Amino acid sequence: MTLILPMESIRNTDRHKVGGKAFALASSWKAGFNVPKALCVTSDAYDHYVVSTGIRERILMEIHRKAFGDMRWEEMWDASLRIRNLFLTTPMPLPLKDTLEDMIAAFFSKMPVAVRSSSPGEDSKKASFAGLHDSYVNVRNPDAILEHVLKVWASLWSDAALLYRRELGLDPEKSTMAVVIQEMVFGDRSGVAFCRSPMEPSQSIIESVYGLNQGMVDGTVEPDRWILDRISGNILSHTQPERDSWVVPTKEGAALESLPSHMAPHAPLKDGEVEVVYRLAMDAESHFESPQDVEWTFREKTLCLLQSRPITTEKGGETGDDRSWYLSLSRSFDNLKALRKKIENRLIPALMEDASRLESENLEILSMEALAREVEGRSHLHQKWVETYWRDFIPFAHGARLFGQVYNDSVHPSDPYEFMGLLAATEMESLKRNRLLEDLARGLRENPQLRQLLEAGDLENAEASFLKRVDDFISEYGQVICLGTSLTECRAHVCGILLRMASAHKTAVARKDISALTESFLSRFQGKKREEAGEILDLARASYRLRDDDNIYLGRIESALDEVVALAEKRLVDGSAEEKDRRFFEDLISRAKKKAYVPHSAVHTTAKDENFDFRPRQLTGQPAGPGLGEGPARVIWKTSDLTEFQSGEILVCDAIDPAMTFVVPLSNGIVERRGGMLLHGAIIAREYGLPCVTGVPDATTLIKTGDRITVDGYLGIVIIKTDTTP
Predict the structure, then answer these.
(1) Hey, where are the domains in the chain?
(2) CA distance 187 to 636
């Protein structure tokens, strides 16, 4: 077992244990390229660490909570977060630590280094994994270097890396990681060179920024770009950005700072230097016998090769791939800040305006022709907002994702979800709505006579002031809860909920004073870093709140569509439509229902099977709300099932949507087929202190209404009780 290798000692037979990046650096160095000296912590060291500490078994448990191919990106993020925390909180065994530390200290002394990933599957001709594993710059002293080695190991299990492996059909169980520790070169100009453009094979591309390359890699600094003829090297074009920032080394690593004004008018590279970089890239291509993506830096007038990897197929974002996880994973902090401004200042007001306009329209007076136009119009409007939901609202949820990693990386908590406590300090629409219901339910508990009237269904003799409050509630939230029913029907529905809430007497968990927890987090940063940490926390709180609120707002649009479709169907049934119009209306309604897909829909995607016999007694999902809960299951297949929900039941569904949140105070726990700590249902469950397990495959099929079940929100387990179950 070889734990660590100097670059000059790496041989052809070592590639499987040093990874593509380290192997390419060693090969480049031996070929005479100017490569900074480096060590490679081999995959043997990684394997020794995960086996000797027991982490490997826990990793396998996380990625096998359900079939890997069926995991959604939210579920992968949850698993990734828990796995990363294992690496951050599990120290290296002393023999391994001492071996690595001694060699690193002897090789680099007090020299600052870059710590880079070098997975054996990385930087191959078929898969680059570019940007999916972590790298760190300007790391000093052996202890800090080993800490960052652990972080690089952990990045092997990032959600982005897991999703990429699934795209390529790679077995995650065979994943391992080597790490390159490389002399830090403080270049004053850095960049990348593509021997062959992914867009135009007859061209080469060179991109450059002032300072360190990190700013260009993470997207915070826009580079100058030169397009060159691939054969001659002649410059075809030069695109100049607004040069206003650069990344420079600091005591803590590296930081984004304003570019000195005297440098801004000038490109980082002169024409002669562009030619030198082009020649370096073409020499790398000749050496490796394939077009290369070369990372380089100038230290004064000396050009260094930092890494070289084969150019693979284009990344999703470059080819116009609009899959949500590609879009989401590419969101930087600056991008998320801009997205927040767009959502809060433009999208939410426009969404609310559309919802209010639809809710105020009197559909009953519309002719059949006008009703047809309304069905079509609402269907298109709903589809527009669903697309906006995926394009903007879903990616913004990653503000909480970003904060979770920052918090855990700095605090190293034993509980990987401790950071959620800081996010709860924000008001959500669902809680505002439920608080109004709780106030009304309290009035029933304190007024036995009124309660008796409602229990007898006698709303006509109920107190006018109480009914006024109920009507005010319906005016604000009725479209979501009552789904387009009449005022009389909605009154009866809401009063039924209030009676059950009056008996349950359950309210949202009182918020803890989180000022100490907040200060504990912020105190780990100094100066500008503390300010940035505060901004990330504020962004995460907005992301957390809107992850819930956007469901409420979108639900109003969905309810308005349901309302007009229901009316059109009613007119077909009662004969209001002429025979010649019936087929047109039937087709119109069918198309509207197909377009009415909302990502948070409560309806299961698998057909309900009443004859499904095989039922395991223990189901595994992802822990999303701590605690233990027991009670009879209530499986929600459609929204109308909610009218039967009773106090003390366990809510089982595909995923909680805005029309369902009001029954949460009645429940003893939540089980969802879809998975993720940031699902609407998981967020609300934690607000009420309810145990919640998400990502349970076929939950709504394997669990039957009336089954007595136990929900373990600590371990992510659901137990279906039988007569023989202890």
Answers:
(1) 1-184, 186-330, 350-424+538-595, 430-504, 618-720
(2) 60
Residue with tokens 């990987």: 416
Give whole-number Cα distances, 150 to 86, 195, 260, 556, in Å.
10, 33, 36, 46
Question: Global pTM?
Answer: 0.78
Cα–Cα nearest to 268, from 305, 295, 243: 243
CA dihedral sign of residues 15, 39, 104, 148: negative
Report how many helices (DSSP H) and strands (DSSP E) the chain contains, helices first: 25, 21
**How far is the C-alpha of 658 from the C-alpha of 204, rounded, in Å?**
51
With cut-offs at 50, 70 and 90, classify the pLDDT of residue 68. Answer: confident
266: CB partners within 8 A, 6+ apart: none
Cα 676-679-681 angle, rounded to 5 deg: 120
Between CA 244 and CA 246 the distance in angstroms is 7
Contact 220, 247 (CB under 8 A): yes
Residue range 224-249, pLDDT digits in tens = 999 999 999 999 999 999 999 999 98
| Cβ contact 244:222 at 8 Å | no
Residues 6+ apart with CB under 8 A from 7: 22, 25, 26, 29, 35, 37, 38, 39, 40
- Partner residues linked to 308 by β-bridges: 294
Give Cα 42 distance to the centre of its chain.
31
pLDDT in tens, 73-86: 778 888 899 999 99
How far is the C-alpha of 442 from the C-alpha of 448, rounded, in Å? Answer: 11
Residue 246, C-beta contacts closer than 8 angstroms, at least 6 positions apart: 209, 210, 211, 212, 215, 221, 256, 257, 259
Q: Which CATH superfamily is domain 618-720 in?
A: Phosphohistidine domain (3.50.30.10)
Closest residue by Cα to residue 417 from 544, 515, 534, 549: 544
Q: Where are the alpha helices (DSSP H) in 596-714?
A: 680-687, 699-702
Superfamily of domain 1-184: ATP-grasp fold, A domain (3.30.1490.20)
Confidence (pLDDT) at 329: 44
Round to whole Å and give the CA distance between 321 and 654: 27
CATH topology of domain 186-330: D-amino Acid Aminotransferase; Chain A, domain 1 (3.30.470)
Look at residues 695, 686, 697, 692 and name the one whose alpha carbon lies nearest to residue 709: 692
Q: Give strand pairing partners of 178.
A: 118
How far is 622 from 716, CA to CA, in rounded Å?
A: 5
Fold match between 1-184 and 186-330?
no
CB 518 within 8 A of CB 530: no
Task: Give me the pLDDT at residue 67, please.
Answer: 81
d(CA 335, CA 342): 11
Distances (CA, A) of 397 to 134, 220, 658, 673, 680: 21, 20, 17, 20, 11
pLDDT tens profile 386-431:
889 888 888 888 888 889 989 999 999 988 888 888 887 667 777 7
> What is the rounded distance in angstroms from the CA atom of residue 69 to the CA atom of residue 67?
5
Q: Mind giving me the DSSP string for 126-154?
A: S---TTTS-EEEEE-SHHHHHHHHHHHHH
| Closest to 161 measured CA to CA, from 35, 356, 325, 45 | 325
CB 47 within 8 A of CB 145: no
Cβ-based neighbour number of residue 458 at 10 Å: 10
Dihedral sign from CA coordinates of 465, 467, 469, 475: negative
Least confident window among 227-236, 323-332, 513-522, 551-560: 323-332
Residue 596 has pLDDT above 50, yes or no: no
Are 55 and 84 within 8 A, CB to CB? no
